[in-house]
Amino acid sequence: MGASLGLAQSPDLSGVWKANFAQSSLDDPSITSYAILLEQSAGGLKETADTVNRYGPYRSITTYQFSGREARGSVHGIPARIKAAWEGGALVVDMRIFNTQLETLHKTYRLAGDGKTLTMETSGTREGRPAQSKVIFEKQPDAAGALLRQPEQTAAQRFKNVQLLKDVPASRFIDAMHYFTLSVGGDCETCHVHEDFASDANKHKVTARKMITMTRGINEQYFEGKNEVRCYSCHHGMKHPQIAPMPKP
Ligand code: HEC
Ligand code: HEC
To answer: Would the CA dihedral through 51, 53, 59, 65 be positive or negative?
Structure first.
């Protein structure tokens, strides 16, 4: 009874929400559009967020389980552990993101008494720097969520020279690029030539395609198609996987 009463009392954050930029302070000042669709059930919350910043449109989809225990997830393609729980009427989310250095994010979602504004506060560290933002969202009519409910463009539709990861939603494709970078070390230019992502002139990009095919093959053959072996499994942040505990090249 106690637990179900607790759930019954947690506010329902469901709906379509749009950031009020005049009242918000964002980490990334180049964001010009920010809308989220929240779909809440007894067990959790699904958040679909569409932003537009200087790199163009980006969609992130995150699911929170209200179990109060850490669950596996990912943030922008980087593996993470995510914990969500209701505390004093607010949804509190803690994330540990296993990037080159551990990143932590603490988020709270608080609904105003009239149910028309939602305040999302974030603090923590991203890429070694402190991260801090406060976004005031205003409730929109449900019809405003049409775009958020539509599937995103695929990578093949958005980009010029995608040969393997064609059907992946464009934002997930960019997330995969972040995971590749974490896995092999360096930055995007480990595999790309400067400012031309479509070009195949960097030989590591060509090798990376073979690696994608190889990794898929291993998972299909030995792990029933589950993503058990991934780039980091072998590379551990290095271009040349090690065969014994040796000094990094
Ligand atoms: C380990 C190698 C590797 C790294 C590191 C990497 N990429 Fe890629 N990238 C690829 C491969 C391979 C493709 C092509 C995938 C395919 O054909 O399905 C690609 C394609 C792309 C494309 C599509 C370009 C087009 O128009 O066809 C973009 C955009 C892109 N990468 C962005 C990035 C960004 C941004 C980073 C750094 C955060 C990055 N990549 C890091 C291997 C890499
Ligand atoms: C089963 C282990 C394994 C997995 C999984 C794996 N790789 Fe590799 N990768 C290797 C080995 C071994 C080499 C050859 C290294 C060398 O030449 O020293 C290599 C080479 C590369 C190279 C070229 C480096 C160079 O200097 O020549 C790139 C880029 C690369 N891998 C990217 C990836 C990406 C991206 C993924 C995930 C899609 C991936 N690898 C998954 C084992 C792996």
So the answer is: negative
At residue 103, what is the residue type? E
Q: Does residue 83 contact residue 63 with C-beta atoms inside 8 Å?
A: no
Candidate from 157, 171, 180 with most ligand 1 atoms within 8 A of CB, to mutate: 180
Of all ligands present, the nearest one to the C-alpha of 55 is: 1
Could you give the CA distance from residue 18 to residue 36 in angstroms, rounded to a whole number? 6
212 CA → ligand 1 middle, Å: 12
Q: Assess whether the C-beta atom of 59 lies below 6 angstroms from ligand 1.
A: no
- Among 99, 94, 93, smallest CA distance to 76 is for 99
In tens, the pLDDT along 237-247 reads: 999 999 998 87
Cβ-Cβ contacts under 8 Å for 4 (sequence gap 6 or more)? none
pLDDT in tens, 12-53: 999 999 999 999 999 899 999 999 999 999 999 999 999 999
Per the structure block, which two tokens stand in for 223?
């792990």
Closest C-alpha residue for ligand 1 atom 11: 205
Q: State in Å: Cα 117 to ligand 1 middle.
A: 38
Q: CA–CA distance from 21 to each of 30, 32, 108, 136, 149 (Å)? A: 11, 8, 18, 8, 23
Ligand 2: residue whose CA is nearest its atom 23 = 204
Residue 156 CB less than 6 A away from ligand 1: no
